[in-house]
Amino acid sequence: MKMMNPETKQQLDRMCNPRGLAIFGGVSKPGSFANSILVSHVKYGFKGKLYPISPKGGDVGGHKIYKNLNEIDEPVDLASISVPAEAVPEILEACLEHGVAGAEIHTSGFGETGEEVGKELQKKITEISKKGLRLIGPNCFGIHSPKGGLTLLPGFDMQRDRGNVAMISQSGGIANDFGHEAITAGLKISKIISFGNGCDLEAAELLEYLGEDDDTEYIAAYLEGVRDGRQFLDTVKSVSGKKPVLIWKGGLTPLGARATLSHTGSLGGESKIWNGAITQAGALSVRGLDDIIDTLSVLSYVKSKGNRIAIAGGGGAIGVFSSDLAHEWGIEIPLFSPDTQQRLHEFFPTPGNSVANPLDTGTPMFPVEWLSEMIREILTREPIDIMVLIMLLHPLEVVAPSFMEAAGITTPPPRGHYLDSLLSSVSGIKKDTGKDIALVLENRAYRPEDIDIESLKRRLIRDYQDQGIPVFPSAERALRGIRNAHLLNPST
Fold first, then answer.
1. What is the pLDDT of residues 83-133, one digit of tens each?
2. How many CB atoms lie within 10 A of CB 458?
3. Which of 107, 172, 256, 298 qualifies as a cystine partner to 141, CB 3.0-4.6 A?
């Protein structure tokens, strides 16, 4: 893989881990971008020094407001700029003079407008960047870096734990959504970079940087357009030879292309050509944030590179649907051996169940002890890479306790008892067998009186993730994640 210019890497390192962050704009005006950025970094716990800057001076929230950079004697590595577009070039020149490594320009009103004034302003700030100041944006939400205590707009509630998953995004909203979805999926972030129009730093250079970033193991991207297609594909090929790369490309239809042009001023492309080029470059072309999150979940949690799966629970129709998807996506669902099937049959007192793979227990309220033993039998006896458990939350944690109450059992188990017991068993089985286990936790009932089930679901997701078991909201998303991960990280 080609090496990034050391000076550029050093500048980006400084920008992602700044000793000082200068915030330009209406820092004392609640609700403004600049004030939101200041508040977000205070709440997030920025590790460096914050320098609100406004010509009016004064103070905000106990922080002195500086009138300009000349009043600051200590290092400033990153500038956050939220001023009217026409005022941006002057601030960038001041940053250059002060030795700032780079700036994130949140302001819109540049090339994405399609108007000559905006195009000229973008050309002007691009020329300034060539003097040595690296730019993120304009029209962006900035950088999120837990290592540096730095967050993007308005990500004060994003995770603080450092991880190995990174994303670059031309959309600030997608960058923000990814940061929050990652928390639910149990993914830990190294960096998220929302780069908007990408007048200076854009997809190719940011991918190259993440390819050399020791903190990053997996890379995702949301793109609306690239300036130099050949350079971009060469970079993707170089980086994907070292780390898995997922790319979601917006604007692959005429309507989507029209939307990207008005959003970031980017030109889209044709779907088949784009997907073919990305595949040839060794990356995976995905569609939507769910695709990204599910694939990264499998890559992060599942250690096996194989795609032979066993499916247990859920019911007959879900098993049939899962088998159809597996066939369509090239995932193997091998039949269990006759000996294993005979052993599994011993757990069923009545007919009407399937033990061939998928394993259909015939009822979602199958005794957890029996299900656990069957899982152990399968993972011990069969050449399975991943066990996919499909659990239906409503029957297990709402219907079953209600039936017990109706039957006169005065102290039915509390909600969550079944899945807590199952976790206790399967976490041990996972450790004993060295096999991977994934959980599908479906809930198709949304009555207002069952709102506490959503809280229970979120707690269960966290508990399973803490034991190294990824959790998916549907069998389709679990299987798609397995398929995608296998394409990125094949066994052969």
1. 999 999 999 999 999 999 999 999 999 999 999 999 999 999 999 999 999
2. 12
3. 172
